[in-house]
C-alpha cells in the first residue's frame, strides 16, 4: 500500500483520501509510525500510514441460460474412488550461505560506504540545527563539516566571536557537542561521536590538558594526597587517563556522575 505522511495521523489520513479520491471513512489504513514532537527539535517525526480504498465484495455472477449452474454431487458413502487432494509444489531450498560471506571485502566496503553516507546526511541536518541555535543566541556562525568517518564527524564552527561559541571554560561548546550526539542518534546515525571545534579550540585544549596532567602528578607526588580535577567531558577525561596510564608514581580514575564526572589523580600506592 502507498505510504502517506502528516504532522498527525488525521492529517496523513486526509492526505491519503485526497490522493486516492475517496472519503476518509472509505479507507483501510495501517499506522506505520506514530508522530512525536521531540525535544528542542530533536526526535521530532511525522506520522506515517499506509492506506488503500476499502474493497467491497462483488455479488456472485448469476448463471446465464446457456451456462446453467452446476452443483457437485456429494461423494457416495460407498464410493470406491479415493478422494483427491491438492498437492503443493515443493519449495525450492534456500541458497546456501557460504562461510565467510560476512567477511567479503566487497560487503565490508559497501557497509562502510553506507555508514559514511548516513553520517554525512545526518551531519548536514546537524549543521542547519546548529546554525539555528547560534542564531537564536545572537552569534554569527558558519558551521562546516571538516571530517566524516563511519561513526564520527567533526564540525568546525567558523565565527568572528569564538569565545561566545566556546563559553566559560568550554561549557557552551561541550554542551552543544552532547546535544549534537543526541541529534545524530535521532536522525539516522546512532552511536556517532560528534566533535565541535572553533578557532582550533580542541588542539589548544589538548595542550592545556597535557600541562594539567603534569602539574597534577607533581602535586600528588609532593603531597602524597589525591587531586580532584574539575568536571570535564569524556574525551578530555580519556586524554588525562592516557597521559598518566604508564606513570610509576600516580594512578587515575573517574569520579562522580555526568555531567559532573571528573578525573582523580592519586598516589600509586
Produce a short descriptive summary.
The chain has about 270 residues and is an alpha+beta fold. It has helices at about 10-20, 105-135, 160-165, 170-185, 200-225, 235-245, and strands at about 5, 25-35, 45-55, 140-150, 150-160, 195, 225-230, 250-255, 260-265.
Description:
By secondary structure, this protein is an alpha+beta fold. Helices cover 37% and strands 19% of the residues. The protein has six helices and nine strands, in the order βαββαββααβαβαββ. β8 and β9 form a beta hairpin. The N and C termini lie far apart (69 Å). About 13% of the residues have low confidence.
Q: Looking at CATH, which topology of the largest domain would you report?
A: GMP Synthetase, Chain A, domain 3
Tally the helices: what do you get? Answer: 6
- In round numbers, the mean pLDDT is 82
Q: Main beta sheet: strand number and arrangement? A: 3 strands, antiparallel
Structural class: alpha+beta
User: CATH architecture of the largest domain, please?
Assistant: 2-Layer Sandwich
SSE succession: EHEEHEEHHEHEHEE
Domain module tally: 3
- The count of DSSP E runs of length 2 or more, i.e. the number of strands, is 9
By CATH reckoning, the class of the largest domain would read Alpha Beta
What topology, given as strand order, has the largest sheet?
1-3-2
Helix content: 25-40%
Portion of residues in beta strands equals 15-25%
- Taking the alpha carbons of the first and last residues, their distance comes to 69 Å
Radius of gyration computed on alpha carbons: 32 Å
Annotated CATH homologous superfamily of the largest domain:
K homology (KH) domain
Amino acid at each position: 500500500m502507498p505510504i502517506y505522511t502528516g504532522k498527525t495521523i488525521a492529517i496523513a489520513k486526509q492526505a491519503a483520501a485526497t490522493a486516492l479520491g475517496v472519503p476518509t471513512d472509505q479507507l483501510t489504513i495501517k499506522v506505520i509510525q506514530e508522530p512525536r514532537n521531540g525535544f528542542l527539535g530533536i526526535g521530532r517525526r511525522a506520522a506515517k500510514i499506509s492506506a488503500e480504498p476499502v474493497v467491497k465484495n462483488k455479488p456472485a455472477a448469476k448463471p446465464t441460460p446457456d451456462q446453467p449452474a452446476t452443483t457437485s454431487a456429494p461423494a457416495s458413502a460407498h464410493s470406491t474412488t479415493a478422494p483427491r487432494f491438492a498437492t503443493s509444489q515443493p519449495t525450492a531450498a534456500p541458497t546456501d550461505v557460504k562461510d565467510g560471506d560476512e567477511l567479503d571485502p566487497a560487503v565490508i566496503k559497501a557497509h562502510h560506504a553506507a555508514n559514511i553516507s548516513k553520517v554525512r546526511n545526518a551531519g548536514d541536518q546537524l549543521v542547519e540545527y546548529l546554525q539555528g541555535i547560534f542564531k537564536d543566541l545572537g552569534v554569527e556562525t558558519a558551521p562546516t563539516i571538516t571530517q566524516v568517518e563511519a561513526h564520527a564527524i567533526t564540525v568546525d564552527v567558523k565565527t568572528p566571536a569564538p569565545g561566545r561559541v566556546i563559553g566559560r571554560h568550554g561549557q557552551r561548546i561541550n554542551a552543544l557537542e552532547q546535544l549534537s550526539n543526541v541529534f545524530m542518534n535521532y536522525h539516522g546515525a546512532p552511536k556517532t561521536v560528534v566533535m565541535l571545534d572553533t578557532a582550533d579550540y580542541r588542539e589548544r585544549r589538548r595542550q592545556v590538558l597535557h600541562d594539567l596532567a603534569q602539574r597534577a602528578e607533581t602535586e600528588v607526588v609532593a603531597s602524597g594526597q589525591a587531586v580532584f580535577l574539575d568536571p570535564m567531558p569524556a574525551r578530555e577525561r580519556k586524554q588525562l587517563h592516557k597521559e598518566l596510564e604508564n606513570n610509576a608514581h600516580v594512578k587515575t580514575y573517574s569520579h562522580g556522575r555526568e555531567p559532573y564526572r571528573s578525573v582523580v589523580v592519586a598516589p600509586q600506592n
